[in-house]
Amino acid sequence: MIFSRSTVLLAIAFGLPACGGGEWVVTTWGEAYIEEGIPAADFADGCSVTFDSFTVQLQDIALLDGAGGDAGVLDGGFLVELTEPGPLTLGRVTAPATLYDAARARIAPLDDAPSVAVAGAITCGDTTVGFDWRFSTDTTYVCEPEGLTLPRGGEDTTELTVHGDHLFYDGLESPDAQVRAEAIVAADGDLDGLVTQTELDAVPIAPLGYTVGQYSEVTTLGQHVEHLTRTLMHVDGEGHCQVNL
Amino acid sequence: MPRSSPFLCAMLLLGCAVDDRLALTVPVTALALDDATLRPAEGVSLTLTTAQITLADLRLEAPAAMSWRPRLLPVVYAHPGHDLAGGVAGELLGEWTLDLLGDDLVLGEALCYEGPLATARLSLLPTPALRLAGLANVDGVERPFSLTLSPDQEITGLPLEAELSAASPPGGLRLSVDLNHGLSFIDWRTSDTDADGTFTEADGATLNTALFGLTSTPTWRLTLE
Question: A214, A220, A225, A244: best mutation site toward chain B, by most B Cβ within 10 Å?
Fold first, then answer.
């Protein structure tokens, strides 16, 4: 690294123009929740989940400058299997050396493949059911990495973090929302040990105690889970991303 | 009596530095029901004898938008627990109990900025938030009902698309409640599981379904005049 982070920050503070470029490295990771599973201790109803597969279609990945324009674009789309040990490197791109506070990424269908596809098993008490769900939601995230600084000739990294537990929240807006799965297990209407999206769509959400906030068009458990696929992304672990739903 | 408005007061005091929008006030009135008889579902008729709702703190919001710049106002985060809302563009703080079978109630004057509005939010107070009683006729069979709900939560995303102008302020903002929608999620054919002779929120899943309807956005309507 030629310049230290403090040198770059000082240059920015005094209004000196950024010169030369640095490399922006983009990775993604599903963390232990997707690689190993979500333990019963993290579910309000004592259930647990393991994933056999958790894929997302990442695309339109860009580093944003201070005006919201693209400062660096990672070309192409990336079908990522998040059950594989991560973080997984998606690529790197050169951008002007400076401090950045925003990056964009989109999870959307590509080439007839779903935007999000998850398969695995849920266990609640003595009952285990499988699931294999595919979603075609299209969501653009504008994320807020902290202290992302590309030094001239050097590099910095942004991790697009996917939180698998979000699929199981019992509220779309409530700050008191909890992770629950009993209702999903109970949706196995034909008792074949596999909960399909059709079965989720057959479950009215109002009797469950789930909340939807302003999304009053969400009236079934299937719609609820689908909506949650639009809340999956964070940045650098727990950093926030904005989204227009 | 409306409480003070610390957020807007602070913003107005700082107005020269951070905001040059003009302020205006908008009278807010909560409307009583037109009819004490409801028909929330096919084969179900409700005759109300009590209909009270306790609310607090009406906030009007500008359109939400993603931003890449530093912000003074809250933003929408992609995580359960964050709702989609723009910045607060007007508010009327206070607590009110509406008798929906009585007269319309003037809640006060909302202090607003001129500019676009997109949504609004209200708080339900657990004092309780809803007292509803009367006689239900379900498929020709009558039985009394009584619902008492005490959620402590907000109703978010109420549609309110408008452009406020200090030069031509609106005559008022009217709040109405559509109980036919709010009570439509309840299974009125649920048996009287506690055998107390009255259909209540304790019977079956009624507590959840009634709460779902009370907090459902289409149950509430705001109209600018």
Answer: A214
